[in-house]
Design goal:
heterotrimer; A mainly alpha; B alpha/beta; C mainly alpha; A: MetI-like fold; 0% strand; B: alpha/beta; Rossmann fold; 2 domains; 6-stranded mixed sheet; 36% helix
Chain lengths: 278, 517, 320
């Protein structure tokens, strides 16, 4: 018995793998780019540079210049705040909405619950990207629309998980214990049910932020996000689309940055998930 | 020719010798039992005899002759030749040990299927194997899935699949632990018949009553070493080693009945009924149960799984409302009153559950869990920590436990914390639902002793629920026997145990340990 | 525990009716929400039909509105829409002046062939990977590759593939829907993230199944690694993966919109996108309804497949 316990304790204290540390560093750099882009480059992302348009990457322009002569590296750096704002914002709203809907539905009268569950099922039968597309069709394009569309698209999945987790928790031994102790129902919900439901949702959210960033880039690429000349990553990619033969660097670097960002978020998210489970 | 001969078996994991040089001998037609508590290394030993230890385990032996083949230095490929044909494995709980997505027949015949060349139907072989384990309607059962069979039939199928390759040695690792007592007896007699037919049986168990009923010889294992070995009757009746004596002393048995002074009734249920809807229709969990418990006494409720004991417990605690009938607590309406009125009275009656770990919010420390209970008992915030430490001392735990999380504690410690949390409320009645079933027998004895001491010191009334008749016999003043939701017999402990009336009570007594008294 | 044949038959019939009812409710729900949401969009449908620059008198516009039934009360428009929907009439496109149904069905083959080839590639790659990859280093590598495939934006991957294979190497055409060669790059692009997801779930499913007690029993019978997978754990992993099918198909369709745009292919994705940008509401609504029908049917098939794969579910569903 003692050997089993000590082995478990050791695994909890093992330091993170180098990949996780690298990913965390990447995210830290990105956060810095969001908060203080000026630290990374003195160049204005909207200004045409003297070097001229469609210059390949060089020491002066790390990612080259685009068709208007703007520095692509500066645009990518300043674009970070668009993508991360949308990614984090949409996921946070979706998580909150899903949590409230799911927990209330899970605790409600079975008739109410089955209606809500049916609605969530219908919403979930649509893929998130298409749902976001349809919402944008209704509210029109733009940065804010991306946040609204992506949070509406992602919320049903959170609601579904919150609901099933609520079912598990409300039957758990510690809820029975609390009831037999005489804890009042609202206190049980706030103190035991909600915190224990939040766990799986938080894990979903870390992956969800990555998905939201990619979806936002995709929607912007299609012209449904912020309008040019905003340095949003998807917008940059759509600008580079017709110049693949002459200036592939306009397309290469923003996409690479998106991929690295999402990979880092996933790695850190999985690490946090493995730490939080028993 | 012997079925098993092991010399100097050592298994090292992470630098620790989890099994430290043991010798084993099983002759053909003989049953050797390895008995010990969790962490002794029994299961690892069993797996080593099939070459199935975990990849990070380092196994070495001077000699390891399994089913007549010396496998001490076998590679995995060589082991595959012995598994199923020289030695067979029977694990605990066939529900998870058989592939739930495959039919019984396919599972049973697999050892033959992977070895044969050419076609031809194996259906006859399947039926023959199932008949060998006394499976009723073998052709029908072969087409069914594990979850469609009862626990006992499933275990027979598992045994049949271990026998398919005609092995000389059968290794059975806790083969009856997941089964009800009556079913357990039948499976043990099946194993006895198989041994009589010439197979050697290595039986791994923590249950000394199983050892007594089946084993010819027994080896007592502790911390990776065998501390005593010999003929079963000798070891169990005249134990030499102190640990063996400790194990034997910890087995629950009936004690002398306490004075039968009548006391006021503090908890009574009158004809309570509770049913549940399931996909197959309505199931009657509890049917017209009537019990009454006197102050300071212990009522033991015994029954097999599915008998309705836990539902009755929840009805007594008013965690469920009975469909009909009512429960009265300390002279006032309990089941019929509203939850808002009940909540203030809940301190009088508290619950101890089997799954101690699950009864704690995984995110809370012991301090937080106790504080929740103390807050409801009206203890001021400033005094809660001191009172928590007092309560922990009362249940035999040191003060440093208070800042740990329940999952960091051992099973016995967790159950003590659960008792402390219940006591924090200042209850007069304790409802204990299988509180010691998940614990090792020596830890079990300690927790039962603790509960007994608390009952005497605090004058507690107890309702004790268990499937283990030995435990019930030890703790109860009165006993109620439940089967399929109905209380079939009730009375003083002495009456029920020595002069049972109902056939089911007699069956339970027959299937339980002979050393009840 | 076993059910009589009549019992089973009745249970199965009830289950079928309930399933179909679910599909109908899903389609109705999507149509209703879509209808009212789209009607809430500001903007005049007549302007969409005529084009922004058309100079037409107000009375002509009124006539057009009447012809199209846009002057009726909202509830009447909704009910007549539902009535037409039941007959399979999805309305008429504002822009193209064609029935929406024919517009969509004309584009269906192109999208289906793209999606079909993509799934095929993804399945072949994933299954091969699951069976072949055993060594720890190979698993770590595969795990990392899956992560990158799942995290990279599909349209960017497509653009990069075009750069390398079309512009630099000239193996495949840059755009167009003509022949099979034009199908390869789009299908591969679409298949890559799918491969990442499927092999990830498959591998996790196999790992989870390998930790189960029945695996110990199977190994104790003398099974080797390949036999263990093919006879036991693959079925468990497949049962887990089947529930993912709905998500995968959705991912496919969403990806199709992007891929068709990137590669300039004709298909439902491009039509839907055009309709959204141009505010061609009947087409958008038609896509919503068609989508709801497709996904509801797919979810139904997934549930059926799951009960076939996991017999423990059959007792509850009654569809054994």
């Amino acid at each position: 018995m003692s050997t089993v316990l000590s082995r478990r304790a050791i695994s909890l204290r093992r330091p993170a793998a180098p990949g996780v540390i690298l990913a965390a560093l990447v995210l830290a750099v990105l956060a810095l780019a969001v908060v203080a882009p000026g630290l990374f480059t003195p160049i204005d992302p909207l200004a045409a540079s003297a070097s001229g348009s469609l210059q390949p990457p060089s020491s002066a322009h790390l990612f080259g210049t685009d068709q208007s002569g703007r520095d692509v590296f500066a645009r990518v750096v300043y674009g970070a705040r668009y993508s991360l704002a949308v990614g984090v914002g949409a996921s946070a709203i979706a998580l909150l909405a899903g949590l409230i809907i799911g927990v209330l539905s899970g605790l409600a009268h079975p008739a109410v619950d089955s209606v809500v569950n049916r609605a969530v099922t219908i919403a979930m039968s649509f893929p998130e990207f298409l749902l976001a597309l349809v919402v944008i069709a209704i509210v029109g394009p733009g940065q804010l629309s991306l946040v609204v569309a992506l949070s509406i698209a992602a919320a049903p999945a959170y609601a579904r998980v919150a609901r099933s987790q609520t079912f598990v928790v409300k039957r758990a031994g510690y809820v029975t214990s609390a009831r037999s102790l005489g804890v009042s129902a609202p206190l049980i919900v706030l103190r035991h049910i909600v915190p224990n439901t939040l766990g799986p949702l938080a894990v979903m959210a870390t992956i969800g932020v990555g998905t939201a960033i990619v979806s936002a880039a995709g929607l912007s690429f299609l012209g449904l996000g912020p309008a040019a000349p905003a340095p949003e990553w998807g917008v940059i990619l759509s600008e580079g689309r017709n110049l693949l033969d002459r200036a592939p660097w306009i397309t290469l670097f923003p996409g690479l940055v998106i991929t690295v960002t999402v990979v880092s978020i996933s790695v850190v998210g999985r690490y946090l998930q493995s730490r939080s489970t028993r | 020719m012997s079925a098993l001969s092991v010399r100097g078996l050592r298994i090292r994991i992470g630098g620790v010798d989890v099994v430290d040089g043991i010798d084993l001998d099983v002759a053909a037609g003989e049953c050797l039992a390895i008995v010990g508590e969790s962490g002794a290394g029994k299961s690892l030993t069993a797996r080593a005899l099939l070459g199935l230890t975990p990849p990070h385990a380092d196994v070495a032996a001077e000699s390891l002759v399994v089913g007549g083949v010396d496998s001490a230095r076998f590679t995995d490929a060589q082991w595959r030749g012995v598994r199923g044909t020289g030695v067979g494995l029977v694990s605990q709980d066939a529900l998870v040990s058989l592939d739930p997505l495959r039919r019984i027949g396919r599972e049973v015949v697999e050892p033959l299927e992977i070895r044969r060349r050419g076609g031809g139907s194996l259906d006859d072989a399947v039926v023959a194997l199932l008949e060998r384990v006394a499976m009723p309607e073998p052709a029908l059962r072969a087409r069914q899935y594990p979850h469609e069979l009862s626990g006992g039939l499933r275990q027979r199928a598992l045994i049949a699949s271990a026998l398919a390759g005609d092995p000389r040695l059968l290794v059975a690792d806790e083969p009856t632990t997941a089964l009800d007592a009556t079913v357990q007896r039948r499976i043990l007699s099946l194993l006895g018949e198989l041994t009589a037919s010439g197979i050697g049986l290595l039986l791994i168990t923590h249950d000394l009553s199983v050892v007594r009923s089946l084993a010819d010889r027994v080896a007592v294992m502790r911390d990776g070493r065998i501390v005593e070995t010999g003929a079963t009757s000798r070891v169990l009746d005249e134990p030499q080693h102190s640990y063996t004596r400790e194990l034997l002393a910890a087995v629950p048995r009936a004690r002398a009945p306490r004075e039968v002074m009548p006391a006021p009734v503090v908890l009574e249920a009158t004809s309570v009924t509770k049913s549940y809807r399931s996909p197959d229709g309505t199931r009657m969990a509890v049917s017209a149960a009537t019990i009454s418990v006197q102050q300071g006494k212990t009522l033991g409720i015994v029954g097999e799984s599915g008998s309705g004991k836990s539902t009755l417990a929840r009805l007594l605690l008013a965690l469920e409302k009975p469909d009909s009938g009512h429960v009265i607590l300390e002279g006032a309406q309990w089941s019929e009153s509203r939850e808002s009125e009940r909540r203030s009275r809940r301190g009088a009656i508290q619950l101890i559950e089997q799954d101690a770990l699950g009864s704690f919010d995984p995110r809370h420390t012991v301090a937080r869990a106790l504080a929740e209970s103390l807050a409801l008992a009206g203890v001021a915030r400033a005094s809660r920590r001191a009172r928590s430490i007092e309560l922990l001392a009362l249940v035999g735990l040191s003060a440093e436990v208070v800042d740990r999380r329940p999952r960091e504690l051992s099973g016995g410690q967790r159950q003590r914390v659960a008792i402390a949390r219940a006591l924090a409320r200042g209850p007069r009645i304790l409802v204990c639902d299988e509180p010691v079933s998940a614990l090792d027998v020596s830890v079990q004895a300690q927790v039962l002793a603790l509960l007994d001491g608390l009952q005497r010191d605090l004058g507690l009334t107890m309702v004790f629920i268990s499937h283990d008749l030995g435990v019930i016999a030890q703790v109860s003043d009165e006993i109620a026997v439940m089967k399929d939701g109905v209380i079939v017999e009730q009375g003083t402990a002495t009456d029920v145990l020595t002069a049972p009336q109902h056939p089911f009570t007699k069956e339970l007594l027959g299937a339980s340990a002979d050393n009840l008294f | 525990m076993t059910l009589t044949p009549q019992h089973r038959g009745r249970r199965a019939a009830i289950a079928v009716v309930r399933a179909l009812g679910g599909v109908i409710i899903a389609v109705w729900g999507a149509a209703t929400v879509g209808f009212f949401a789209l009607k809430a969009i500001p903007g005049d449908p007549v302007d969409v039909m005529l084009g922004v620059h058309a100079q037409v008198s107000e009375s002509v516009k009124d006539q057009i509105r009447e012809d199209w039934g846009l002057t009726e009360p909202l509830v009447v428009q909704y009910l007549s829409y539902l009535a037409r929907l039941v007959r399979g009439d999805l309305g008429t496109s504002y822009q193209l002046r064609e029935p929406v149904a024919s517009v969509l069905t004309a584009q269906l083959p192109a999208t289906l062939s793209l999606a079909g080839l993509a799934i095929l590639i993804a399945l072949v790659l994933s299954l091969t990977g699951a069976l072949v990859i055993r060594r720890p280093w190979a698993r770590s590598l595969a795990s990392a590759a899956e992560l990158v495939l799942v995290s990279s934006p599909t349209f960017w991957v497509g653009l990069m593939l075009i750069t390398v294979f079309s512009f630099n190497l000239g193996w495949f055409p840059v755009a167009g829907s003509g022949d099979f060669r034009a199908l390869v790059l789009p299908a591969v692009t679409l298949a890559l993230p799918l491969t990442g997801i499927i092999s990830q779930v498959l591998r996790q499913g196999l790992d989870a199944a390998s930790g189960q007690p029945f695996v110990l029993t199977a190994r104790a019978r003398g099974l080797d690694h390949t036999q263990l997978i093919t006879r036991h754990t693959l079925r468990h992993a497949a049962a887990d993966s089947v529930t993912l099918t709905g998500y995968l198909v959705g991912s496919l369709v969403g990806g199709a919109v992007l891929i068709e745009t990137v590669f300039g292919r004709a298909g439902i994705g491009r039509v839907a996108l055009r309709a959204i940008i141009d505010r061609d509401l009947p087409v958008v609504l038609g896509v919503i309804v068609l989508g709801a029908l497709t996904f509801a049917v797919i979810n139904l098939l997934v549930d059926l497949a799951y009960t076939r794969l996991d017999p423990r579910q059959r007792l509850i569903e009654g569809t054994a």
